[in-house]
């Protein structure tokens, strides 16, 4: 099953053709699109998308790049929103949360405080986490070791083999997408083949992190089949194997997907009915 585990479908870049984007993704073989929130201002928006589109699921969280502008009241709003939505099976986790040590000038202490509180919310409601870990792998791991949410995704992973192994040991998987399609991304491409098949999920981060064939253009979930093919090529595995493994991994770490997704479409059916090539 082809699952886009990270797509900002609510972004302004999709405002004019969002329904068409979802239709194109489904036509390409994508069974599910997970849309994480980035702040209290879009909690209701991502939830509404899951009502409008039967293939969409959502997560609630405060993105580290929004923390500088966020008041502490947003953490209260998050806990309350999760409490109200915990009975909604379309809510699959807490995200996008984490740390960003790449962008200069951000308040790292405030980021850590917000991350820790959001990990506590995830633990209190027994929900997995979808994590932003840019240049902050060790700091994120420090808090994961202490607070231990049930599972999680290290989104757009670009750390070391040792850091990746620690995330995996803590019950997380590594999110891979457009970045690995660039031949110059040597470390990411090595990581794609470094671990067993149960260590990975696939994602787009659309509209961002476009794959090489649409570099500097808007990314979209319909690129998932071609991204999956690159991943399969890097691992030297059949596309059927990659679709089965990454789909099963997504459901394992985001277990509410198992409740809301239809019975899995045959992997061979997806592979044969979908022309897996870059979509311009």
Helix content: 40-55%
Query: Structural class from helices and strands?
Result: alpha/beta
Instruction: Quote the distance from N terminus to C terminus.
Output: 23 Å
The tally of strands reads 8
**What is the CATH H-level superfamily?**
Metal-dependent hydrolases
What do you see in this structure?
With 280 residues, the protein is of the alpha/beta class. It has one domain: Metal-dependent hydrolases (TIM Barrel, Alpha-Beta Barrel). Helix content is 41%, strand content 15%. The chain has 11 helices and 8 strands. It has an 8-stranded parallel beta sheet. It starts with a strand and ends in a 7-residue tail after the last helix.
Blueprint (SSEs and pairs):
Blueprint: E1 2-4, H1 18-27, E2 30-36, H2 43-52, E3 56-60, H3 73-85, E4 91-100, H4 108-124, E5 129-134, H5 137-147, E6 152-155, H6 161-169, E7 172-176, H7 186-191, E8 200-202, H8 224-235, H9 239-253, H10 256-260, H11 267-273
Parallel strand pairs: 1-2, 2-3, 3-4, 4-5, 5-6, 6-7, 7-8
Compact overview of the structure:
This protein is α/β, with parallel strands linked by helices. It is 41% helix and 15% strand. The protein has one domain: Metal-dependent hydrolases (TIM Barrel, Alpha-Beta Barrel), CATH 3.20.20.
Notable characteristics:
alpha/beta, 11 helices, 280 residues, single chain, eight-stranded parallel β-sheet, 15% strand, globular, 41% helix, TIM Barrel
């Amino acid at each position: 099953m082809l699952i886009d585990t990270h797509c900002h479908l609510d972004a302004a870049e999709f405002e004019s053709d969002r329904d068409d984007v979802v239709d194109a993704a489904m036509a390409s073989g994508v069974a599910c699109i997970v849309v994480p929130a980035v702040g209290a201002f879009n909690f209701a928006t991502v939830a509404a998308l899951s009502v409008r589109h039967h293939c969409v699921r959502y997560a609630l969280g405060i993105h580290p790049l929004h923390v500088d502008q966020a008041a502490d009241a947003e953490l209260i709003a998050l806990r309350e929103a999760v409490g109200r939505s915990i009975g909604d099976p379309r809510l699959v986790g807490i995200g996008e949360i984490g740390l960003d040590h790449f962008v200069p000038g951000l308040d790292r202490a405030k980021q850590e405080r917000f991350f820790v509180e959001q990990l506590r919310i995830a633990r209190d409601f027994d929900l997995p986490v979808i994590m932003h870990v840019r240049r902050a792998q060790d700091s994120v791991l420090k808090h994961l070791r202490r607070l231990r949410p049930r599972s999680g995704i290290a989104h757009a992973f670009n750390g070391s083999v040792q850091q990746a192994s620690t995330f995996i040991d803590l019950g997380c998987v590594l999110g891979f997408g457009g970045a690995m399609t660039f031949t110059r991304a040597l470390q990411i491409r090595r990581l794609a083949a470094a671990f067993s098949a149960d260590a990975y999920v696939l994602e787009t981060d659309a509209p961002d992190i476009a794959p090489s064939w649409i570099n500097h253009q808007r990314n979209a979930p319909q690129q998932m089949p071609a991204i999956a093919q690159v991943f399969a090529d890097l691992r030297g595995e059949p596309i059927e194997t990659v679709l089965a493994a990454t789909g099963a991994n997504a459901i394992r770490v985001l277990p509410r997907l198992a409740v809301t997704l239809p019975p899995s479409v045959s992997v061979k059916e997806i592979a044969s009915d979908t022309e897996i090539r870059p979509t311009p």
